[in-house]
Amino acid sequence: MLFPFFVLELALEKYPCYLTTPDGLQCFIRPLQAGDRHAYETFLRLMPDEERLFVEHRFLDTAVFHVWPEKIDFFRHLPLLAFADGKIVADASLHQRAGGWKRHIGLVSVVTHPDYRGRGIVDLLINELVEISRQAGLMRLEAEFNGERDVGILAFQKAGFDELMRLPGYVQDMNALYHDYVLLGMRLKASEELAAAAD
Ligand SMILES: CC(C)(COP(=O)(O)OP(=O)(O)OC[C@H]1O[C@@H](n2cnc3c(N)ncnc32)[C@H](O)[C@@H]1OP(=O)(O)O)[C@@H](O)C(=O)NCCC(=O)NCCS
Fold first, then answer.
1. Looking at ligand 1, which residue's alpha carbon is closest to its atom 30?
2. Per-residue pLDDT at 103
3. pLDDT at 191
4. What is the per-residue pLDDT for 31?
5. Of all atoms in ligand 1, which is nearest to the CA of residue 113?
6. Residues 6+ apart with CB under 8 A from 64
7. How far apart are CA 140 and CA 186, in angstroms?
8. Is the pTM of this model over 0.85?
9. In the chain, how many domains are there?
10. Which domain holds residue 17?
11. Residue 132's domain is classified under what CATH number?
12. What is the SS3 assignment for 104?
């Protein structure tokens, strides 16, 4: 069996690449690089207040990372970025656990620039992450939401995720108000299963 880091590197060999949304927006797609720090933080800070309420901790100091790394550990945290018009327009991130009982389950989170929503960018990125995850040997993907994230929930359901759990009033935003917690999940098909389904 191949070493997982090596398998992930193989899955990332296709990047950078261009993908085009249904309305013709050409996006340059590649994983985050160390030199993207300023652009990435600027992008994340564009998130509207009602969305930021749920993720404020991720924005402290240096956005997602406590210390901005020289080299990003894609095995733990893989932000796949879409660039258009000279800026970052979307980020779909895959988080993996190095060990433990969820080591076979990747966690996916997505955010699109407010001016570029509804154009199909996240549809493209989720499909890319599903394929990367499958190639990297993950068995399942999951995505977490507060109950008000209808668009995000729809986008993931369209990509093949199902609702696994909805807990009313379970999570608290940064204003200490309670919201439903929604967990979506997807089982990833191995190559052999995909080949059998195609027959
Ligand atoms: C959720 C989010 C990432 C969607 O990004 P996006 O690039 O606008 O999504 P897409 O244009 O690829 O649309 C994906 C699907 O979402 C739905 N959708 C998108 N915009 C919508 C809108 N304004 N109203 C209703 N549904 C919408 C559609 O089902 C669409 O599928 P379609 O191709 O059949 O129209 C974006 O709204 C966002 O950044 N939200 C804040 C962060 C968040 O909620 N993340 C989810 C938790 S991880």
1. 155
2. 93
3. 64
4. 96
5. 39
6. 44, 58, 77, 79, 93
7. 6
8. yes
9. 1
10. 4-198
11. 3.40.630.30
12. coil
